Amino acid sequence: MAKLDVLFDGYGGGGVASTVSLIRDGDLVAVVDPGMVPSRGAILDPLAEHGVSPEDVTDVIISHHHPDHTINIALFPDVRIHDHWAIYHHDQWTPRPAEGVQLSTGVRLLETPGHTPQDITTLVDTENGVAALTHLWVYEGAGEDRLATDPDLLEKHRARVLGLATIIVPGHGPMYSVLA
């Protein structure tokens, strides 16, 4: 089973910060959505508490390309970066669709457009169930996404993810459980 830890619970309102997560599964040490936070220490300090240095991180996954989810990628010096259509590493851009990409035994990617046309969801098999790290929900209880580029696709992919996951890690809020 993969290990999932939320490093920082995101928020919106008086400021905006992304939810930043750490996934460990075999050789994979991934950070998801290292975006806007009050300070870099909001990512680096909890990472260190989990015994992980920035140099240990092998991969960064971004749910979509908004700066509030990407601005701190450079904290991790030698990573593969995954998005909806490629893997980026050093000066190499390797195109591939994200749909069904298996990053490790317990971690895979899904294409889930709706908030933006380029959104992806990271599914993580944990001992507590399948977690979906996604911007399909901004936070628990979020209904309408006023910034969604395609509300119909958003709803379609929400239903898809709810059929697969028992835990949601939303784009800007704490992790929560759902009924599968």
Measured between the Cα atoms of the first and last residue, the distance is 19 Å
- Tally of distinct domains: 1
Task: Predict the CATH topology.
Answer: Metallo-beta-lactamase, Chain A
CATH architecture call: 4-Layer Sandwich
Shape: globular
CATH class: Alpha Beta
Determine the CATH superfamily.
Ribonuclease Z/Hydroxyacylglutathione hydrolase-like
Please provide the ordered H/E string of secondary-structure elements: EEEHEEEEEEEEHEE
- The assigned structural class equals mainly beta
Radius of gyration (CA) equals 15 Å
- Name the strands of the widest sheet in spatial order: 1-2-3-4-5-6-7
Q: Tally the helices: what do you get?
A: 2
Structure description:
The longest helix is centred in the C-terminal third of the chain and has 12 residues, at 151-162. A hairpin with an 8-residue loop joins strand 9 and strand 10. The model has no long low-confidence stretch (mean pLDDT 95). The strands form 2 sheets. This protein has a 7-stranded mixed sheet. Strands 8-9-10-11-12-13 form a 6-stranded mixed sheet, with no helix packed on it. The chain is built from 2 helices and 13 strands, in the order βββαββββββββαββ. The chain is 12% helix and 31% strand. It has 180 residues and is mainly beta.
